[in-house]
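Quick one, T. Sequence first:
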Amino acid sequence: MKKVWTIGSILTSILVGTAAPVALAAPAVAVATLPVQVEVDGKKVATPAGMDVIDGQVMVPLRWAAELAGARSVKWDASKRDVKIEAPESYESILQLHSYIRLGAAPAEWGTYLCQLPDRMNAIPRPKLSDRALVLDLEIEKLEQMARENKNLPPRREVMSITTQYAGQEYSYAVYSAKFVQGRVYVPMDWLTELFGADVTYDKERGVLAIQFPNLQETKRQIAEIEAGLVPASPDETIALWGRGLQTRSGALIYAALSNELRDRARANLQARNWVTGGSSPHAGKITVQDKKQLDADTWEYTLTYPEVTSGYMANYPNVTPADIEGTCTDKLVVKKQRTGGTEGWFIAEVKQSNEYYGPVFAEKR
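Structure tokens:
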């Protein structure tokens, strides 16, 4: 089981859950007195009992929220203090859509080494997703301040965990801020964004919690619109799309560069990785075309190399140091002119060599 920690193992509330889930497991802070009203997908709904506001976060009953999100099942394991949630149908599409967030002109902080996409691809509207920083731990600000002041951090242990099931995998989150009331588990509202891709806001002046769950058809429409705009018009554009995906850890951009057959063979692996490839360190640096040769009128073969780099590479580029580079990778790709997704363009038809850390793992041919 993969353990996923929220902002590092040092962050979140100190209280420890022990026996039956009956005690408040969140920091002792002021609670809003204004009654919470709830709107879901633009419509007012009955407010569940036990909801209150702690440090600007509405404490939301997890099962209630999961069922509204369309979770296939929600189970509480008292012995492990774990809530197991089978992800809703919309989950995969939301993750794929979120992987397109690196569309557009290369941000300045990435330096000039990022593969450049053509203007028409840069003009594609970015996914309509909230980029608000999430608060999953109500003690985060205090603990970060203590860390900045080099103070000793208190020992902490998770109150409970949340395990999501998706694409045959399980992903476990340590939860430090939660409360338990009459057998119900309540978590900060931002968990609805983390777990279900919901857009969640709280208007403290009106006392209204607004929850907008993903609309599956709208999400698929956005994905189709983006993919239609990402059809490479030349072999070089295909390589730029592949390279941008490697560099920004975007499984969706890599997927868009593939032929129909390779998409079918890569999809399960990209799903299992939440459409995120590679890691923050090392990651793929500047991509160089070492060799390019035409095999026939509609086929080109490329040999690419790129360094495996640390976070210092981005900060120091172009004046990188040996300490910024951990190794070198080589990709060999065959690009063909063909129809993919109903549109003619240039797509990767064969991956002769690649690093499966940065790119997808392809299933065997059927």
